[in-house]
Write a structure and sequence with these properties.
3 domains, amino-acid biosynthesis, binds arginine, single chain, 16 helices
Length: about 400
């Protein structure tokens, strides 16, 4: 018999190489607080159902609370031989409170436990991200107001197209991030159901109260089907998908601002505190923050593909492949949080060179479409008006003068 938790039917110790390969503690340790919150609710439910006594539940809950506080303060070392955060916490509890600790896992499997922990973790992460996104969108809203009347060239194909207002540009991004907030909200509504009580895959013969645990942990209800409860990672995929869309929006904004910061555009000046220099070229001022935001979108998209690929071939119910869901999710959360945390102060620090923007919007032939439409209002068929204005533009180019000069006396 071995010392390992499933040692009853095993005659040999686990090969240390397998132990290391199998272990997830190095990354799933970030789940410790959520794991403990879930276990405390589970222990209380066991007591309510008469499966353990009230003093036993108290001993377990208090023991877990102390462990949580010590982990929060960094007083404990994570020991990889525990394999994952769930076994680590349980083994620590047993080493402290003795045999009563062995009752905690009654009616539970790590399969429903990890599904619960990951939902609690992502629910909190979603709440934090919503707040950060909301703050970022407020800055966009402020900029949209401040620059409501500042004219800039608008582009299609990155060629000057029609004049717009800088405020209009910021409102566009504000609308995108507003939709992203909606996506996070929808995701939360869909994911906020509790898997606990599904056991390994088939529930339990014990009289568990799944609804009570769900309610206690702030869920809207339980995941009815136990196979679905332990094998569903849609909430991770959907989160990574929403995060990818947010990163795509951030990346587009970063790209616009990188262009605007070039000497060729000169539309914005980067604050010295938010730009970097070159180790070689003394003249350089680089938009590293924006480039990193644009670049980090790649890894978030990669995580979405990663988790989709992990899940696509898995038979029901739980498979160890699903341990690969965590690093995708954690890195997606960390990357998105880091990008939003830097982009909010970054945007506040940018100086907008509105005079130059206006000058560019007034030169070129950006008023051509408006002139065309004034002809249409006078009854000229659209295609004829288009042709006529096109000729005037060509004349202006040939004479190197403005469109207004070409058409004066002609309208
Ligand atoms: N560390 C595992 C994971 O992240 C926990 C669940 C393990 N379950 C099992 N039956 N081996 O998925």
């Amino acid at each position: 018999m071995t010392n390992i938790i499933w040692g009853g039917r095993f005659k040999k110790e686990l090969d240390p190489r397998v132990m290391h390969f199998n272990a997830s503690l190095a990354f799933d340790k970030v789940l410790f607080a959520h794991d403990i919150t879930g276990s405390q609710a589970h222990a209380k439910m066991l007591a309510r159902q008469g499966l353990i006594s009230n003093p036993e539940a108290d001993l377990i809950c208090n023991g877990l609370e102390v462990i949580k506080q010590e982990l929060e303060k960094g007083l404990l070392e994570f020991d990889e031989s525990s394999e994952d955060i769930h076994m680590f916490v349980e083994q620590l509890l047993v080493s402290r409170i003795g045999d009563v600790g062995k009752k905690l896992h009654t009616g539970r499997s790590r399969n429903d436990q990890v599904a619960l922990d990951l939902r609690l973790y992502s629910r909190d992460a979603g709440t934090d991200i919503k707040k950060l996104l909301h703050d970022f969108n407020e800055v966009l809203g402020e900029l949209a107001c401040v620059h409501a009347q500042d004219k800039i060239p608008g582009y299609t194909h990155l060629q000057q197209a029609q004049p717009i207002y800088l405020g209009h540009f910021f409102s566009a991004y504000q609308a995108m991030f507003h939709r992203d907030l909606g996506r996070l909200h929808d995701w939360h509504t869909r994911m906020n159901f509790s898997p606990l009580g599904a056991g390994a895959l088939a529930g339990s013969t014990l009289p568990l109260d799944r609804e009570w645990v769900a309610q206690t942990l702030g869920f809207n209800g339980i995941i009815e089907n136990t196979l679905d409860a332990v094998s569903d990672r849609d909430f991770v995929i959907e989160f990574c998908s929403v995060a990818s869309i947010i990163m795509m929006h951030l990346s587009r904004l970063a790209e616009d601002l990188i262009l605007w910061a070039t000497q060729e555009f000169g539309f914005i000046t980067l604050d010295d505190a938010f730009a970097t220099g070159s180790s070689l070229m003394p003249n350089k001022k680089n938009p590293d923050v924006l480039e990193l935001v644009r670049g980090k979108s790649g890894r978030v998209f990669g995580h979405l593909m990663g988790i989709l690929t992990v899940m696509k071939g898995l038979p029901l119910a739980y498979n160890k492949d699903m341990q690969e869901d965590k690093e995708c999710l954690f890195d997606t959360v960390n990357t998105l949080v880091a990008c939003l945390e830097i982009m909010t102060p970054f945007l506040r620090s940018v100086q907008f060179n509105t005079q130059l923007m206006e000058q560019k919007a007034n030169s070129g032939y950006l008023n051509a479409t408006a002139i065309l439409e004034s002809l249409v209002l006078k009854g000229v068929p659209f295609r004829d008006a288009h042709h006529q204005v096109g000729e005037w533009v060509q004349t202006a180019i040939d004479k190197n003068c403005s469109l207004d000069e070409v058409i004066k006396n002609k309208l």
